[in-house]
């Protein structure tokens, strides 16, 4: 075979292999593209077969809708499932700055149906005032010896409310660091520093509740037990709201009694979930209670 003919045949074989390789590559790309299309169609078919609502991702931490007060009370009672009688708590976010002295919100209210708790009352008094306190039902009555017992007791406190006659206030400075953080330090603005010891003890025993904003401008307060009737809880809440309005800072900007002051109001039991309450229904309950009391 001639040399020229051998070279030509080799070139033809090389060209044939190149064409074959290109055809294989094109076929491979076609198969891959076809597979991608099939996958897309399968995904679309699966989505078409799924009910529409399940395609919508649920919003996380979506706020609950505010309930009417009566409905919120029912929900709190229905969701209190612990093996003890839980307290019904109110948590109120206020539009104030707790760092400013002129916007500090604190007050007291005597709940018409009480708190449902057995309240132990301590009175700092001597002489006739001490006897008056005992006669009114005070659980602990004492003077300097009571102050000493608290100082040396390692911070142990066995009372829920604390009352003092005015002359005792300078002496209570020794235990202010013990009583203060517990909300037990007697305060003239709250009526717990008074010469009317008998009236103060009876009020404390009958359901007097003190309230004060915390550093996040929220008030946390117990307003009864889940065993109370819905109406009793409604009236306790209304009485508290009226007291909260009375404690509103004078210089706070406002367009109404509630706007700019009471940002949100929620109810819960001790261990149960919280339920936001509409300010409109809170206002209606407070107004209704005021009218009944005025009759």
Automatic annotation (TrEMBL):
It comes from Spirodela intermedia (Intermediate duckweed). Residues 1-12 have a biased composition (Acidic residues). Keywords: Ribonucleoprotein, Ribosomal protein, RNA-binding, rRNA-binding. GO terms for biological process: translation. Belongs to the universal ribosomal protein uL1 family. Pfam families: Ribosomal_L1 (PF00687). One of its GO terms (molecular function) is rRNA binding. Residues 1-30 are annotated as: Disordered. The keyword Ribonucleoprotein applies. This is Ribosomal protein. Residues 14-30 have a biased composition (Basic and acidic residues). Signal peptide: none annotated. HAMAP family: Ribosomal_uL1_B (MF_01318_B). GO terms for cellular component: large ribosomal subunit. Gene3D superfamilies: 3.30.190.20, 3.40.50.790.
């Amino acid at each position: 075979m001639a040399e020229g003919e051998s070279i030509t045949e080799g070139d033809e074989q090389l060209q044939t292999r190149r064409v074959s390789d290109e055809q294989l590559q094109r076929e491979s790309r076609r198969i891959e593209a076809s597979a991608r299309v099939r996958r897309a169609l399968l995904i679309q078919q699966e989505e078409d077969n799924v009910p529409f609502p399940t395609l919508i991702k649920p919003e996380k931490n979506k706020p609950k809708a505010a309930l009417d007060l009566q409905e919120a009370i029912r929900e709190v009672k229905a969701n209190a499932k612990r093996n003890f009688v839980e307290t019904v708590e109110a948590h109120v976010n206020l539009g104030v700055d707790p760092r400013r002295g002129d916007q500090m919100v604190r007050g007291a209210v005597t709940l018409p149906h009480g708190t449902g708790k057995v309240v132990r009352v301590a009175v700092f008094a001597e002489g006739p005032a001490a006897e008056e306190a005992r006669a009114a039902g005070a659980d602990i009555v004492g003077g300097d010896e009571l102050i000493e017992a608290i100082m040396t007791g390692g911070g142990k406190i066995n009372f829920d409310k604390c009352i003092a006659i005015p002359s005792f206030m300078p002496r209570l400075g020794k235990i202010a660091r013990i009583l203060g953080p517990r909300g037990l330090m007697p305060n003239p603005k709250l009526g717990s520093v008074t010469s009317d010891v008998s009236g103060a003890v009876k009020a404390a025993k009958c359901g007097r509740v003190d309230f004060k904003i915390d550093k996040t401008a929220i008030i946390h307060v117990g307003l009864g037990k889940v065993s109370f009737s819905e109406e009793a809880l409604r009236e306790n809440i209304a009485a508290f709201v009226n007291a909260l309005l009375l404690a509103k800072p004078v210089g706070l900007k406002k367009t109404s009694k509630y706007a700019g002051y009471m940002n949100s109001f929620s109810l819960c039991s001790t261990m149960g979930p919280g339920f936001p309450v509409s300010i409109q229904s809170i206002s209606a309950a407070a107004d209704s209670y005021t009218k009944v009391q005025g009759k």
